[in-house]
Design brief:
single chain, 49% helix, alpha+beta, 4-stranded antiparallel β-sheet
Length: 594
């Protein structure tokens, strides 16, 4: 475009935007005609905070607008905004933001605990934190803990170690500690928690059977028989006999992996461990469920600050689920499956989730046949046969002391899970017991106990928004009630439209009057300086990364040429575990003093 100005020299001006009207059906595809309004941007930010994928966010805009053509932006614009504005945290600033987050959480609740271990260059080596609600819950449910380190979290290749317990719906060191099969963790636990019973995750061990034994001709039969020996040996002596027969029948006496497993049988075989209380946990799969949650929101390129924000979301969702379960326990009743007065005792005392587990044992009682073997002075020994298939009966020895009102079964379900088994219930029914001893109704599963942690909110960071974003959210929140009220009739809607027009005209006039002036405001977080904190070195990987480390670990074990790598990984894990264990004991001591 050629423009003439006062003087003799013409001036040429280039206008990159379209200077003529565009076809409406094609203009939406031109970058100059695509924009994200304030409302759209705030929705994207909130959805990103909640872990909603960009594609789902865009589809919600499409549904609200009535179609793709009604939007003046495309999905790529949503993704670009998330990448450039929402997730735009540099590696240099990542660690500083992570440190600021921990300080903010500490300021909000002094019972929030964290500690960082740094390298010489001030980069983060290890991080441990526990929010106030989790620490309070540990007082009630810290008897059994699962610890898993097989999840890869972020761009720095840091290992996530999660402590997971079991509450009543599902100040001392824990009585039981579950980990994956790692000799380094075993040594660390023996050194740091000598009174705690350590259990290896049986799921991880059984998952390795195909890779360890597939070189044998009858590997499928071997796997089936090994599972049979592990799960259906109801005494230590019977396990020893069954294991030796298994090795002889399949010619596996020289297999080193099986020999090593047998030497450590006391740390993973159920019959050696079920006389301890485990709250129903035999594997670290409760930790795996936490990992599946993280998989929904965290990618291999997630930063430290993104990880802790999504961890906040995880705690918040778990807290809400517990609140909803507590409300259901108090306001609804699950009907009894039988006419048993003992079942009614559990119905009155237990949470819904735990009462359903009890009911499963009452239903299983129908498959049991009870036979008295001998009795003297109120002490009786029973043999309970349970039909598990059309041709298989398992037999269990159950003792009943009528004087002490004590029942004990060979299957050890009550000792390990805190629930009376169907075999014991069959004997109690045979003995015509109508009221169960209080020792078998555990306070741990009770819905009537008021627990301190339920009055503590989980730590959740408040986003540090720009002042304009804060004002926008406040206005939207207030306008929703007005719009809901006005939508009741055409007359009310017309009144609101007129008010909108008047307010809009007044605001435009004020904006025009102030044109040419500007103001800048900045809200400081007022936190201690963390400017010296540095992010860990970023790990560059090839190909599509895996969140799970388990498959990699198994390959290292299977491949003898990679023993050196296995040793390095083991040293890293024991270093990490020792640090966390030390901090865990510190946390336990703090809880004991509260």
């Amino acid at each position: 475009m050629l423009e003439n100005f006062t003087g003799t020299t013409p001036r040429l001006q280039v206008v990159l935007d379209h200077s003529h009207p565009c076809c409406p059906s094609k203009a939406e595809m031109l970058k100059q005609h695509r924009e994200l309004s304030m409302s759209i941007r705030r929705t994207i930010e909130n959805n990103e905070e909640a872990g909603i994928r960009p594609s789902k966010t865009y589809q919600s805009f499409v549904a609200a607008a009535g179609g793709h053509r009604e939007l003046n932006f495309i999905e790529k614009d949503v993704r670009n905004y998330i990448t450039r504005e929402v997730r735009n945290v540099s590696e240099q600033e990542d660690a500083k933001e992570f440190g600021k987050y921990l300080l903010r959480m500490k300021e909000k609740n002094q019972n929030f605990f964290f500690e960082l271990q740094l390298e010489e260059d001030q980069s983060i080596k290890l991080a441990f934190w526990a929010d106030a609600r989790s620490r309070a819950a540990f007082e009630y449910f810290g008897d059994v803990i699962s610890f898993d380190t097989t999840y890869n979290t972020n761009r720095y290749n840091l290992v996530c170690g999660s402590f997971v317990g079991v509450n009543h719906h599902g100040g001392n060191a824990p009585k039981g500690f579950l980990t994956d099969q790692c000799a380094s963790m075993k040594r660390a636990l023996e050194a740091c928690m000598p009174t705690t019973v350590h259990r290896w995750c049986i799921w991880h061990i059984m998952k390795k059977i195909p890779s360890k034994l597939n070189g044998y001709k009858r590997h499928a039969d071997i796997e089936q028989e090994m599972r049979q020996v592990v799960w259906n040996s109801h005494s230590k002596d019977s396990f020893d006999r069954n294991w030796n027969d298994f090795l002889l029948n399949f010619g596996l006496a020289d297999n080193k992996w099986l020999s090593d497993l047998y030497e450590d049988c006391h740390i993973w075989v159920p019959i050696y461990l079920d006389h301890h209380f485990w709250a129903g946990m035999r594997s670290t799969q409760r930790s795996e469920s936490m990992h599946s949650f993280f998989n929904k929101y965290i990618t291999r390129n997630s930063s430290l600050i993104q990880f802790v924000k999504q961890y906040d979301n995880c705690l918040g969702s778990r807290e809400q689920a517990e609140r909803e379960s507590d409300a259901a326990d108090f306001h609804t009743v699950i009907p009894c499956a039988t006419k048993s007065s003992i079942e009614a005792q559990f119905q009155d005392a237990y949470t819904h989730a735990k009462f359903r587990e009890v009911q499963a044992q009452f239903r299983g009682k129908t498959n049991c046949i009870t036979r008295l073997k001998n009795s003297a002075l109120g002490y009786s020994v029973y043999e309970v046969g349970e039909q598990v298939s059309s041709s298989i009966f398992n037999k269990f020895v159950v003792t009943y002391d009528s004087v002490a009102a004590e029942v004990k079964c060979q299957c050890l379900l009550f000792e390990s899970r805190g629930i009376l088994c169907r075999h014991a219930l069959s004997v109690l029914s045979f003995e015509q017991v109508s009221q169960l001893s209080p020792r078998y109704i555990l306070e741990r599963w009770s819905k009537k106990v008021k627990r301190r942690h339920t009055h503590i909110k989980s730590s959740h960071d408040e986003p540090l928004m720009e002042p304009r974003s804060k004002r926008f959210d406040q206005l939207v929140f207030r306008s929703q009630n007005i719009c809901e009220f006005a939508s009741e009739s055409k007359e009310l809607t017309a009144i609101l439209h007129r008010a909108y027009d008047n307010v809009m005209a007044e605001m435009e006039a004020l904006k025009a009057k102030r044109k040419g002036t500007s103001s800048l405001s900045h809200e400081d977080a007022n936190l201690e300086s963390v400017n010296e904190l540095q992010s860990p070195p970023r790990i560059r990987t090839r190909g599509r990364p895996k969140n799970r480390l388990g498959s990699k670990l198994e390959k290292q074990i299977a491949n003898a040429t990679k023993k050196k790598k296995t040793k390095v990984l083991s040293e890293v894990k024991v270093m990490f575990f020792k640090f966390v264990a030390i901090e865990f004991i510190f946390l336990v001591n703090r809880l004991a003093n509260v």
